[in-house]
Design goal:
The chain is of the alpha+beta class. It is built from 11 helices and 12 strands.
């Protein structure tokens, strides 16, 4: 697809998607016109060859801006529309954590009881250490399990340190916890996603959000891109696979609805929400970082604490953050591997007066 045609495709979605505000009041008190923001985003995506983007901005506990840009597929030029879904990648983890806490409140699982009590992991090589892993450790990334298994050692899963003693980001831990829930509830992955729909998706008002693949996602999902070349718009794994660590599909607006649910303090889920943001005493800390909350990383930005999470699948990137006291937030989903490494995401945030915090 030609450079000129790509630029025209970037313009198209903006023309037929209605935003909720004509201007955006930034944290520093200045106001940014919607048209200027959109022109800037289009220019950055065009110059940096970022195919598609879904973005939502939260202020004062409301989604005050939502829009889509670009194309679902760089070669065909099919435009991103407001129904287009993306891979949330590791932004899946906070949503799954919220789901787990809701089930814990119902007595389905005890966050502090060893997972082996419910279901011993069949692939963990060190059972003595493995038997110490709890759901809370998994959610806080202190389980000792690796992020992903070595491809040449698919059948074995090492425990890298005594669970609870260190911080080590782990997608494998999240998948283990998902398997535990399936075992406790006697559900397969598809049935667990149906429960997720009832417990999370419907209550927050999301339109299209799911951990297991749904047939209509094929028409909705943007293609991933590696170095500007489209890959596919299919699931990351088998269609029945519940990818708790990185398999959530949705768009920025639906994810913003999830963040809004976490910003509502005065409701029946106040204890769950406080647990999501809680920082435990003696929490192991990643080098150079603040102690993380149960579901999010924490970053000191000026005199405020930003709760944030990044997402990186092979051919997609995602990012979100929120400030609890101010009830502000941002969500960005892109369908390529270059959204962050070209600094497109950084430039967009800095244009809006937001500090970029991913190294």
């Amino acid at each position: 697809m030609s450079y000129k045609y790509f630029f025209l495709c970037l313009l198209l979605p903006v023309c037929f998607y209605s935003c909720r505000t004509s201007s955006i009041k930034l944290s520093n008190g200045t106001t940014l016109k919607r048209e200027k923001l959109e022109s800037f985003i289009i220019a950055q995506m065009d110059s940096l060859k970022v195919p598609g983007l879904s973005i939502a901005i939260i202020q004062e506990g409301k989604i005050i801006y939502e829009n889509v840009f670009g194309v679902k597929n760089y070669e065909t030029g099919e435009p991103v529309v407001n129904e287009t879904i993306f891979e949330a990648a590791s932004l899946s983890k906070p949503v799954f954590a919220y789901f787990v806490l809701k089930l814990a409140e119902k007595g389905v699982i005890d966050l502090n009881k060893p997972l082996s009590h419910y279901y011993p992991h069949p692939d963990i090589s060190d059972t003595a250490k493995g038997n110490l892993i709890t759901a809370r450790m998994v959610l806080c990334h202190t389980s000792g399990l690796p992020n992903s298994r070595e491809k040449e050692n698919v059948g074995e899963l090492p425990v890298l340190f005594t669970p609870g003693s260190k911080y080590e980001y782990s997608g494998e831990g999240y998948q283990y916890l998902k398997d535990v829930l399936c075992h406790i509830l006697k559900l397969n992955d598809t049935q667990l996603d149906s429960l997720f729909q009832r417990e999370v998706v419907k209550p927050i008002g999301a339109k299209n959000m799911g951990f297991t693949w749904q047939n209509h996602f094929t028409k909705l999902k943007a293609y991933g891109h590696l170095d500007g070349i489209p890959t596919d718009n299919k699931s990351q794994g088998p269609e029945t696979y519940f990818g708790s660590a990185g398999g959530l599909h949705c768009n920025a607006v639906d994810y913003a609805r999830f963040l809004l649910a976490l910003l509502q303090k005065d409701n029946s889920e106040s204890e769950i929400i406080e647990e999501m943001f809680a920082v435990r005493e003696n929490m192991p800390v990643a080098e150079g970082e603040l102690p993380r909350a149960l579901a999010f990383e924490r970053k000191q930005i000026g005199n405020r604490i930003r709760f944030w999470h990044g997402g990186k699948n092979r051919d997609t990137r995602a990012y979100c953050h929120l400030y609890r006291k101010e009830k502000e937030g941002l969500v960005m989903f892109s369908n390529c591997d270059t959204f962050q490494k070209t600094y497109c995401a950084k430039r967009i945030m800095e244009y809006m007066g937001m500090e970029w915090n991913i190294k």
